[in-house]
Amino acid sequence: MNIEKYLILNKYLLSLFGVSEFREIQEKLRDAQVGTDLEGRTHFVNILASFEGLKIPEEFLLKYDENIQSYVKRINYYRGNFNLKYFQYLAVLFTEIVLDSLKNRKVEFIGELNEFLEKYKKEEDIDFLDQFNEEDPNKLAFWMATGSGKTLIMHINYHQFFHYKLFNPDNIILITPNEGLSKQHFEELQKSGIPCRLYTGSLNGALYGENSMLVIEMTKFVEFKKGGGVTLPVDVFEGRNLIFVDEGHKGKKSEDQKWAKLRNKLAQDGFVFEYSATFGQILDEKNKEVLQEYAKAILFDYSYKYFYLDGYGKDFSVLNIKQTKIKEDKFQETMFVANLLSFYEQLLAYDENPLLAKEHNIEKPLWIFVGTTVTGKQEESDVVQIIKFIKRVIEDEKWLTDKVEEILSGNTGFKNESNEDVFKDKFELIKKGFELDDLYKRVFGGKGSLSIYEIKNAEGEFGLKSGEGEYFGVINIGDTSGFKKQLEK
User: Fold this and answer.
1) Which InterPro entries does the record match to this protein (predicted)?
2) Which terminus of the chain is more exposed, N or C, with fewer CB under 10 A?
């Protein structure tokens, strides 16, 4: 389903630049030079100002550009030098436009939104989007792919809100899915010089500094407090609140509905900034209420497909294997070890080229398995299969040695259309000199037996260790009880 066509706020903002699709801006800005010209304007704003059909007065656009540079400068004072990429700049620019409009011409702005909405509905044959009311623009959402810089956008949004000062918030709260992310956000806020406090079970004592942000996970909120514990009733935060929400819909559907109700109560009469890479997973024509809410809230869409078109994200390596009579277990084992070698080779390349990695902002390689089943009635669940493969690799060195030799020598029996082994031209870096001990060290932190630990204060997370080493991997799972039963078998 094409969710994008319903994102009416985003479509309105695109129309201000004389375009109807993000790709029209993407094509003109993706190769633009970062930084400013001799007059102190960003190269981004110079290109945007040249768009035919631009509906924003140039003096407004230049003022927004000046503001954006001031926000970046404030954060750079603490973090060091960073520059916004074009898509980050656009996310901040779209926010400038909306906040300025809400502050200085709210009635006119809502009227323009509704005029655009009615025209757009006729063009796209949409029949269920209601008109914007005064409360709708008080929630702004950012649909941005993982790795596209949502955290820094959030920090700039904080400064934007206080620049336009729509109201004086009684509380400023950042809501996260779990304690692990709360700690990460707390550390990142500190790096950006934003006053903040991490909720650890008590609200005693003053918040740290003016306009300080409380970082807390959604699971700590309840509608009504019962007994002791670290949970908080939402009524504790009276007044008009400024709320930031990171990935607010990562639980089960029933949990999402409960949390949404609590978040809405917290945000009543306030303002919300929400960030997610996965809005596409919750938006559906069948649930028109949720779709309508986010259709009016998502002001910027840089979802994965745009991220990928800019050269980020993951690419696929497809092996065309002729049909053979190879047994399924041999096929799975060989592919798992080949994946392991590919990951190990990436680690080698990363460690041997630190300057190149830094130049291109490349992070340390990550090996990800996406499982769909925790328990299986007839067949073994894929999560358990992956764990068994990892266990065998770690604990059966002879088997792994034979498998690696089979793959590197091109004797797997997996042939392509030219009747050559599909791995014949793979793993050139490893073939220059391979040591199994080094693979164990780099990938698993050393040799030993596989151990699995349930991580406290991180719901649904299990850590993986080899011997007495550090955690080398993590399993994030929804059905923890079912998973533990499978491990016990």
Assistant:
1) Helicase/UvrB_N, Helicase_ATP-bd, P-loop_NTPase
2) C
